Amino acid sequence: MPSVLGHAIVGATTAKLVHSYKNKSKPDWRLLFVSLACSVISDLDGITFILGIPYDSFFGHRGFSHSLLFSLIIGFLAACVFLKKLQLIGVREWRWIGYFSWVTLTHPLLDAMTTGGHGVALFSPVNIHRYFLSYRTIYVSPLFISGFSGYAGFRILFKEFVCILLPCLGAVIVMEKLYLRLRAKARGLFLGAFSFFCVGFIFINKIHFVREELISGIHDVDVHEITADLLGDKPYGIKNLPVIDIPGSRLIINYNELGKLNLLNQLLTPRDVPWASSSFPLWLGGAAGRWQEPYLVQIFRSLMGSSFASRSDLLSLLYRAQTGNPQEFTSKAELDRLAPTEKYDLAVGDYSLGTTRSESILRGGGSLDTFPNAPLWSGYCTSIGLA
Q1: CA-CA distance, 223 to 370, in Å (whole number)?
Q2: pLDDT tens digits along 351-363
Q3: What is the dihedral of CA 346, 319, 322, 280, to 10 degrees?
Q4: pTM for this one?
Q5: Which among 149, 43, 151, 27 has a CA at the least distance from the CA of 104?
Q6: Rounded to whole angstroms, how far apart are CA atoms 86 and 63?
Q7: Which of 54, 105, 236, 269 could disulfide-link to 348, CB 3.0 to 4.6 Å?
Q8: Distance, CA of 284 to CA of 265 (rounded, Å)
Q9: 79: nearest Cα among 49, 56, 100
């Protein structure tokens, strides 16, 4: 889930937009407080962890409390509290019910955009399956304040600043500085154009709900499982690395065998310059960071999450780098800019970038709880650059 602060910002923004639309000069504190309560109330199901209720159960975290029906119920109750007296025959009452239901619904929609945890039971109790949106960009927030320290908390807050706070500020500015100054007909055209933009954005990016079990790699990654895969018989495992150019045509991965060859008691000089001069720190993406890119670009990619190239793009890049066309040097430069893990994936023929995705998830792309208090400088030493 996004942090409580992120959900509260959305609730406060919707209250501000409605307040501005009604053109009131005095603050409406009751509207603000009820909107804030609606925006965060779904996470009261966090108590289920203390009560021992399973995550995947009906009343578990992100279960029924994150559904459309629950949003409608809370919207009705919130309208009763806000209006003090509710008559279901008036249009005004139904508008407030719809408003508070929407504010409550923003919570599961934001949770469906997170990069980890379980999906939301949006259609419960009719459909108990958990769902994510296909557009997932918000980091999972820890349940406790202590989880916001170190690298993990910095990434979470920065991502919410970019993906939640800035759009909310933009919406308020557009409402007060543009929309309210337009005439009635112009407002209609503005809303039509905005609706067309939203529909177009959803259509172009093919945003839709996806059942959780149909998405791979959304949960916490087990380091031991990754190690077992690399040492096992997977197509991208160490045992299947090409050994044609290796003396004896055999890759030695056993520490004792390396010692017998007297390779551990002498100074080894790398044939090529390593990818980094000191380390692969977390805040620059770890081993999944692209070290040939400008420093600020590395930081931004790490904070916002790395995007992964498609299989077709990778194959095209390799083909252009191996041919003698005029783009040869450009393509080789593109290859040089890839991250160490990306180069490893390409070397072993794993065009789904399994190792890179795993490293990205472990360092924060999927579950920042893996290293909740890790300092910014921590990471791999340059020995991985020589591998």
Answers
A1: 10
A2: 777 777 776 655 5
A3: -30
A4: 0.68
A5: 43
A6: 29
A7: 236
A8: 32
A9: 100
